[in-house]
Structure to design on (320 residues):
């Protein structure tokens, strides 16, 4: 642990590193539905930007868009709500920009909001696609599903189904080719980020509900936090064709799986398996995790059920 932020009066429900490096809105954004506040922390000093703090009794999760200034879309925040809805707002003005899954009909003073797509239970996690201008995002819900959205128009592109219980967290891979979801069923699922949105594999190892997942700087390690009070780091290993054995049973990690890719000579298959490479046992009941956008270290910010926020750095043999 290299830093902790104390201030929330109850459990932290979401945290995210701001991509606005050098901007006055840079830092770590956290929200707690339980103490009713959204707060911005300076990750160099650990102090809170008290002028930014505002009250919100309904926001359960937050995520930043990847754009940087002078792009006018920079500073957009995707937020999920306990009523199953998701919105996009601006961090500078705090104004609402778009409601996902809602179509507005009418002109002038007569406007009607029609709900086209919405989760059937609380939205508990959300994430923008990492590519600037992609206009894609994902939300997950206690209803056991995840939804992929077009963030320009607000329409739902796909609903991901497969988890046996609530889907608590999500993230994209660094290249945006895969989506990851974590669930109370104690599993992590890897999906194709584009059509047909197929589930590629299931990662096992946690002994309690998994609350969130995130990649950090390199994009190599997937971090997950769980009710079992652990932070785990996972590494996707490429296999040689002769090593591929889809019938091999594993207790920690994933089974061998194949991914097909288009090639000039037709489709080719690559083979992979997820391995657990690190485990951090915490005294805190962990609820959320966010990967740093910095370039030097594999750092993550974690939020606890007791309101604590702390930062960890992954250091494997050879990193010293």
């Amino acid at each position: 642990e290299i830093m902790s932020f104390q201030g929330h009066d109850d459990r932290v429900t979401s945290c995210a590193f701001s991509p606005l490096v050098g901007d006055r809105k840079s830092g770590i954004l956290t929200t707690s539905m339980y103490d009713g506040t959204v707060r911005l922390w300076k990750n160099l000093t650990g102090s809170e930007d008290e002028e930014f703090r505002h009250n919100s009794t309904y926001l359960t999760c937050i995520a930043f868009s990847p754009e940087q200034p002078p792009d006018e879309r920079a500073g957009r925040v995707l937020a999920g709500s306990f009523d199953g809805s998701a919105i996009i707002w601006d961090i500078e003005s705090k104004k609402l920009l778009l409601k996902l899954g809602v179509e507005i009909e009418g002109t002038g003073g007569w406007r009607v909001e029609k709900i086209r797509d919405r989760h059937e239970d609380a939205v508990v996690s959300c994430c923008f696609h990492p590519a600037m201008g992609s206009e894609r995002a994902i939300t997950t819900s206690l209803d056991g599903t995840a939804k992929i959205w077009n963030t320009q128009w607000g329409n739902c592109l796909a609903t991901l189904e497969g988890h046996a219980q609530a889907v608590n967290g999500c993230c994209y891979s660094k290249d945006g080719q895969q989506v990851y979801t974590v669930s109370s069923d104690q599993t992590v699922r890897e999906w194709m980020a584009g059509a047909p949105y197929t589930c590629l594999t299931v990662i096992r190892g946690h002994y309690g509900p998994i609350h969130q997942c995130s990649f950090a700087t390199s994009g190599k390690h997937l971090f997950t936090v769980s009710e079992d009070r652990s932070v785990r780091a996972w590494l996707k290993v490429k296999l040689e064709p002769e090593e591929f054995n889809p019938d091999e049973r594993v207790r920690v990690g994933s089974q061998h799986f194949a991914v097909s890719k288009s090639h000039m000579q037709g489709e080719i298959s690559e083979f992979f398996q997820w391995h657990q490479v690190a485990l951090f046992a915490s005294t805190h009941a962990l609820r959320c995790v966010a990967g740093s956008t910095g370039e030097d270290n594999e750092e993550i910010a974690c939020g606890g059920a007791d309101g604590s926020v702390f930062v960890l750095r992954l250091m494997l043999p050879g990193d010293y």
Q: What stands out?
A: Residues 3-104+112-313 form a domain with the Methylamine Dehydrogenase; Chain H fold (CATH 2.130.10.10). The radius of gyration is 19 Å. The mean pLDDT is 84.
